[in-house]
Design a protein that fits this description.
350 residues, 0% strand, transmembrane, membrane
């Protein structure tokens, strides 16, 4: 087998919990659609009832999605006054948090109205259900079906809106913040007259944003194979080179991992795999126990091997137990390159 492919193969299988959650998210609206078709089929004007029910479901989804978006907008450190003062000392510019503030205000308004206006809200919902009964065929069960439709698709929309915001918007903002930190450092160096260092930091900031996103796109768009393996390997090689050049601090590497995106996590681990000074046991353990991909796990194993000489016995023991657990339950295949790196860690003396 090609060595690069063995090192940086396809993604790890999706966990049963995640599969089950996604199945529920998909089953809820699909079940509602199936029930809508059966309901419309029993009406005198099937096409009209079906069209009305579908539009009602879409409207409910949009409303639920908007509320989910408001609840899912991440809170930045700049939203805190103390953090804002600290940030000012490092940068001449602060992130625009208007969206965050509006989301916070609207969320509090919605919660406040829900707690203080239960009676009027109940009456308004009754009027809403009564108003949709004619569009649903004006049958004795039209009110019940309309209420069920509203609840089903509003909840589905909320879940989709909240998840999409947390997963997509949060990761995008984190990537930009990481790159902007490098760019702000570049501006400080330029102001101090260090033009060459400023240009290096500026290039690093742009490259970090590009490399981590490129990793994620490679995993999403390219099938497992030599091409993807080679491209991913080049990204990790770049990270290790930056670690050798001492362009990162331990705090920066840890914060990069904590952003939570696949690209940032593996980039951080690649930095740690090259420099023991950047390594963090808790983050390495997290990637070994619950890896996002095989690439991430083997990079974490290499980071553990690099960090081992500087760790105390208790930290080494924690890593050994985690690696042995992965080997014993088959999460690390016996003939894989990951197993080779794992056994090397276990065999080497402290």
């Amino acid at each position: 087998m090609d060595k690069a492919r063995a090192h940086f193969g396809s993604e790890a299988p999706m966990s049963p919990r995640r599969r089950g959650f996604l199945a529920v998210c998909a089953a809820l609206p699909l079940t509602g659609l199936l029930a809508t078709v059966f309901y419309a089929a029993g009406s005198d004007n099937t096409a009209q009832v079906l069209a009305s029910a579908v539009m009602l479901a879409l409207a409910s989804t949009v409303v639920g999605g908007l509320v989910g978006f408001l609840f899912g907008v991440p809170r930045s450190a700049a939203g805190n006054d103390d953090s804002r003062v600290t940030a000012t000392s490092h940068s001449r510019y602060l992130a625009n948090t208007n969206l965050e503030q509006i989301s916070d205000w609207l969320t509090k308004i919605l919660v406040g109205l829900g707690l203080t206006q239960l009676g009027p809200i109940h009456d308004a919902l009754k009027r809403l259900i009564s108003s949709v009964e004619p569009a649903l065929g004006a049958r004795p069960d039209s009110g019940v079906f309309g209420a069920a439709l509203l609840v089903c698709y509003t909840v589905s929309g909320f879940m989709c809106g909240w998840l999409a915001t947390r997963l997509l918007l949060t990761s995008a903002l984190s990537d930009v913040d990481c790159a902007m930190e490098q760019l702000h450092r570049s501006a400080d160096e330029l102001q101090a007259g260090n033009t060459e260092r400023s240009l290096e930091l500026q290039a690093d900031g742009l490259r970090i944003l590009g490399e981590t996103r490129r990793y994620e796109l490679l995993r999403q768009l390219l099938p497992s194979g030599d091409l993807r393996s080679t491209e991913i390997k080049s990204i990790l090689t770049q990270a290790r080179q930056e670690a050798r050049d001492a362009q990162w601090t331990a705090r920066q590497a840890q914060e990069l991992f904590d952003t939570g995106t696949d690209g940032n996590r593996i980039y951080s681990l690649a930095l740690m795999s090259e420099s023991a000074a950047l390594a963090d046991v808790d983050r390495i353990l997290s990637a070994i126990k619950i890896p996002r991909s095989r690439s991430e796990q083997i990079t974490a194993l290499r980071a553990a091997h690099t960090a081992k000489p500087k760790l105390d016995p208790s930290q080494v023991q924690r890593l050994k137990e985690a690696i042995e657990e992965q080997l014993n339950r088959g999460a690390i295949p016996a003939e894989s390159q990951r197993a080779t790196v794992a056994h090397q860690f276990l065999a080497d003396p402290i």
